[in-house]
Amino acid sequence: MSQPVQVTISDQDSRQLLLTLDASLNETHAQDAEATDHPVEQGANITDHIRPKPRMVTIEGMMTNTPLLTARLANGSFFPDQPGAAEAAHQFFDQRLNAGQLHIIRTKLDTYENMMLVSKNEPRNAQIGDSLQFTLIFKQIRIVQNKTVTVKTASDFNANLQPAQKTGAASIFDVGRGTIGF
Description:
Blueprint lengths: L7 E4 L5 E4 L2 E8 L2 E3 L14 E3 L3 E8 L7 E3 L2 E3 L6 H15 L2 E5 L4 E11 L10 E9 L13 H6 L2 E6 L2 E5 L4 E3 L1
Antiparallel strand pairs: 1-2, 1-9, 3-6, 4-5, 6-11, 7-8, 9-10, 10-11, 12-13, 13-14
């Protein structure tokens, strides 16, 4: 019998472990890129014509009220003799989806940072019983930092120019490193 794949979900900011799944039934690791629809000139750098899209991870998992592993949730710990882990996981997924918080997803294949829960699906039927079966989709969010730079405008540049000579309708300015004709 194969052993379930362990998947953990941690908070991006605090790095605190939020949840260890009872069982990861299926994982899908996806990364796409968008290629240009326009012709590419021969000799051009091809990497300029492709745009990687954010990474996505889909986890189909299960939480039971009699966990195989000790499941830790942000609002408490659950042990096999305490009912309520499935219901707590349901509330946890709702809270994390609505809060828009970032996560770290650890699977056997990879660790994903800056992942946002963008979709959850929790089917219920007689076969699932008191357990929580779910599909979670996480999307990687690109974090950027703004940087402010000071740029001289043409008027700032022209204020420092001194007319050297005039020839017809054009002016020639001495900028200290050469001349510019207008």
